[in-house]
Amino acid sequence: MLTTGTKLLVGATVAAFVAAIVYGLAKNGTLGVVGLLSAATALGLLAGINLVARDSNVSAMDAEAVVEAPASRSAPSPSLWPLVVAGGAGLIVFGLVTEQAFFLLGVILVGLGMFEWMLEAWSERASADVAFNREARGRLSGPLEFPALAAVAAVVVIFSFSRIMLFLSKTAGPVAFVIVALLILGGGFGFAYQKSVRSSAIAAITAIGALGLVAGGVAAGLEGERELQPHESTADLGDEAACDTSDETEADENATQTVGNKANVFAVITLGDGDELTATLSGGRETTRMAIGRSNAANVIFRNESNEPRRLVLSTGTKAAVDENGEEIEGERILDQRCTALAEEGGSQLLTFKIDKSSRDADEPFQFTVPGVDAAPIEVVVP
After folding, report:
1. Residue in 174, 151, 155, 149 with CA at minimum distance from that of residue 213
2. Residues 137, 115: Cα–Cα separation, whole Å
3. CB atoms within 10 A of CB 304
4. What gap in Å lies between CA 114 and CA 4, rounded to an integer?
5. SS in 3 state form for 24-47?
6. For residue 183, which phi and psi values (nearest 5 degrees)?
């Protein structure tokens, strides 16, 4: 018995063949005849295939075919992985014109989505048993996808949260952090208080929170980070040849060079109560002339026993001045200095340095001095 689809294709084949004969007799042309005969041949081929496949229908009288035929299998379940792949592709394009992090995130989402999509399609056609297919997918994908998904989720959450915190001001950041923590605490308390909560409700709330966090991170990333004011250090004073001051600067606030005791100390330089400057080498010998090896790192402790805050300055000749772009200014030179932060009365500061040039050919002497004090300097000799 012919199926409906086969009947239609056989009728179309006969109609095309008759049309070719009529066209050839009426128009006496070959081009139209060839076209109609080609259509009749193609339709006849489709009619033969359809006749063998029986329109992919299974006879209701064939009980075995009803159970085992592909058409008897359950329809594929809805999947979100195509949406993940599409979103990742959008992030790739978005990252090409904004930040590299969005591009990398898009690549990860596309790769993860395609892998999961293919795995899901394979598992749904593994057999006619839905439960067996689900179990087979879990055995294969569980050891791979759970760690990968956890790592991706952690990266997305951390990066989005960091963009938001860097965008917020110095005062608004802690407030937002506390509000988010309270919301999470309140949500956890609410779920724990309810005797029964649907898993779909938990998943929906989690998804909304995650989407809000990612959206906030993307928006904050586009706006850019807030302007961070760099903290001046004693290295900046040395680069600007501004060590020759006994006044307190930003580099002296919350200074990290304060020491109580330090190993591998080359010398201890002390400013006495009478504003005299003395140097004691690690062996206990006092001197006014120190020899330091070239390119060797050295630690010097400065002890201030005067009645005012003071800093120790190491001058090692001059160096070329540079502009804002770090390029040398031709013909202009400034002092090459390093210094400690201000040492309070009775306090001490550490100076770690390395000298890469000889004092023999320098245009200025190498020496330790204390700004605002007329004490004789400690000469430094570098072979």
Report:
1. 155
2. 12
3. 24
4. 39
5. HHHHCCCHHHHHHHHHHHHHHHHH
6. -65, -45
Amino acid, res. 127: S
Class of the CATH domain delimited by 234-381: mainly beta
- Helices vs strands, H then E, count in the chain: 9, 10
Interval 357-376: pLDDT, tens: 888 878 888 999 998 888 88
- Please tell me the distance from the alpha carbon of residue 258 to that of residue 194, in angstroms, as a whole number: 56
pTM of the model: 0.45
The structure tokens listed for 176 are 């937002």
**What six digits make up the tokens of 246?**
């006994």
**Integer CA distances (angstroms), 337 to 157, 261, 319, in order:** 45, 24, 9
Q: pLDDT tens digit string along 131-173?
A: 777 777 777 777 777 787 788 788 888 888 888 888 887 788 7
Q: What does the alpha-carbon distance between residue 319 and residue 333 come to, in Å, rounded to a whole number?
A: 5
Domain ranges of the chain: 4-72, 81-223, 234-381
Q: Tokens at residue 59, please?
A: 């006879």
Phi, psi of 369 (to 5 degrees): -140, 165
